């Protein structure tokens, strides 16, 4: 990059350092925006560390840390001798994952590879028959006159979700409910309202990578464990049917977690997206049931219980927070699709029926997956799930990132463990979902067994990738 191009980049960066938080996070956030908006196209050369640091009047370490963070997010590629460049938008399947640190869960949604069995995205791909019936009923309920703009959600669905929580012994008023376009939007809106660049967000490890992407995009510092004296701006947990491991938090731990959020006055997101998929029966109480404070924010959706294409989720929170979120949401899209919300209200009225059919199928497929793994990959350590849609597995040797590349060449896409770790650990783990019918799961495990036989893990010791945040 010549001096003229560096000058153009400085102009594009603008007032990048005027936010709150560490300078490297602020610089990474602005570069991220420029890359995502296409103002820095793929393969654009970025200035050397020392040059950009001098032009920005910051320490070289600030630029190095910003570049390293963007490399972990797969937005730039750094190679010794050839500098730092904006990463290609569509990465070749054979490129080693540890070169760019890409998130396969998102990349396989944006650019699904042909002829590959996707064990990456854990969402049902079979809309249940009752969904079509729910939409037919929704059409009959469309009002004769209604603008259709409901930033906080259609009143019928807000009332239905409030009744759902009240039925779980968590009294809820419709004013405490905000409807969202899935739980991912719920996390994004809450982060946008509650988190500033440089703020600390505390999460579990491993945890849902979609949430980690949101927190990183907000230039937050993500911590599984807080440093001495550190106070998070937000906490995020999946206590019921967790992603990726399918675990269920015990009651005593739920009480302690809720009490800690209340005592320290820290907002805590309780992600209940898979809460209705517990194999043993009804979902445990939400974290908000264990405190009278307003710090607990519950989010959920119908994407895992019903179908990923039914983009309806919600937030349960204090009414004043819901009002603030609705104002923020109105800036983006004025509210969600009314027909889908009316259909979702119909589905909620038949929740026991939906849950029973879904859980029975998942439990059967879970047991089948574990049986095939024991038969074909006995050296893998697989942790049975108590609910949800996924299991967590540990390889006996090698690196899950590298093995994922071998598996891809055998026709199966799997997400390596570091995608679920806010600090890039769990490099010897991977997640497997059990959403496919038994015969498809069998074929997928057979292919993984062939890939494992072809993979020489002894040459690839597990790499502990560590993010700066």
From TrEMBL:
SMART domains: HTH_GNTR (SM00345). The keyword Magnesium does not apply. Keywords: DNA-binding, Pyridoxal phosphate, Transcription, Transcription regulation. One of its GO terms (molecular function) is DNA binding. Residues 21-89 form the HTH gntR-type domain. It comes from the Bacteria. Coiled coil: none annotated. PANTHER family: HTH-TYPE TRANSCRIPTIONAL REGULATORY PROTEIN GABR. In the C-terminal section; belongs to the class-I pyridoxal-phosphate-dependent aminotransferase family. This is DNA-binding transcriptional MocR family regulator.
């Amino acid at each position: 990059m010549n001096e003229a191009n560096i000058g153009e980049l400085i102009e594009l960066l603008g007032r990048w350092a005027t936010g709150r938080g560490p300078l490297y996070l602020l610089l990474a956030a602005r570069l991220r925006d420029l890359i995502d908006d296409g103002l820095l196209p793929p393969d654009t050369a970025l200035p050397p560390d020392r040059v950009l640091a001098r032009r920005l009047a910051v320490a070289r370490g600030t630029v190095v840390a910003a570049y390293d963070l963007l490399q972990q997010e797969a937005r730039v590629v750094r190679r010794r001798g050839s500098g730092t460049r904006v990463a290609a938008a569509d990465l070749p399947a054979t490129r080693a994952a540890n070169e760019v640190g890409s998130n396969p869960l998102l990349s396989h949604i944006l650019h699904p590879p042909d002829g590959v069995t996707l064990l990456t995205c854990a969402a049902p791909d079979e809309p249940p028959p009752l969904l079509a019936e729910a939409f037919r009923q929704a059409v009959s309920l469309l009002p004769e006159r209604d603008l259709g703009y409901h930033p906080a959600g259609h009143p019928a669905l807000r009332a239905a979700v409030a009744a759902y929580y009240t039925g779980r012994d968590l009294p809820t008023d419709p004013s405490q409910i905000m409807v969202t376009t899935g739980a991912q939007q719920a996390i994004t809106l809450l982060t946008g309202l509650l988190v500033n660049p440089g703020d600390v967000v505390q999460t579990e490890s491993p945890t849902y990578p979609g949430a980690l992407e949101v927190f990183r995009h907000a230039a937050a510092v993500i911590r599984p464990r807080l440093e001495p004296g550190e106070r998070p701006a937000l906490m995020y947990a999946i206590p019921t049917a967790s992603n990726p491991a399918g675990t269920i938090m015990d009651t005593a731990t739920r009480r302690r977690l809720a009490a800690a959020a209340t005592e320290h006055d820290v907002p805590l997101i309780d992600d209940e997206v898979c809460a209705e998929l517990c194999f043993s029966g009804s979902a445990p109480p939400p974290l908000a049931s264990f405190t009278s404070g307003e710090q607990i924010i519950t989010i959920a959706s119908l994407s895992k219980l019903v179908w990923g294409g039914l983009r309806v989720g919600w937030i349960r929170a204090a009414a004043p927070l819901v009002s603030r979120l609705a104002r923020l949401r109105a800036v983006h899209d004025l509210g969600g699709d009314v027909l889908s919300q009316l259909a979702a209200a119909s589905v909620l009225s038949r929740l026991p029926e939906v849950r029973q059919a879904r859980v029975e199928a998942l439990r059967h497929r879970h047991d089948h997956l574990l049986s095939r793994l024991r038969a074909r990959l006995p050296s893998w350590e697989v942790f049975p799930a108590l609910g949800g849609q996924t299991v967590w597995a540990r390889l006996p040797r090698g690196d899950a990132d590298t093995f994922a590349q071998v598996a891809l060449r055998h026709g199966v896409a799997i997400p390596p463990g570091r995608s679920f770790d806010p600090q890039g650990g769990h490099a010897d783990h991977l997640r497997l979902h059990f959403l496919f019918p038994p015969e498809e799961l069998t074929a997928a495990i057979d292919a993984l067994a062939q890939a494992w036989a072809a993979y020489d893990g002894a040459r690839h010791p597990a790499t502990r990738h560590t993010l700066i945040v």
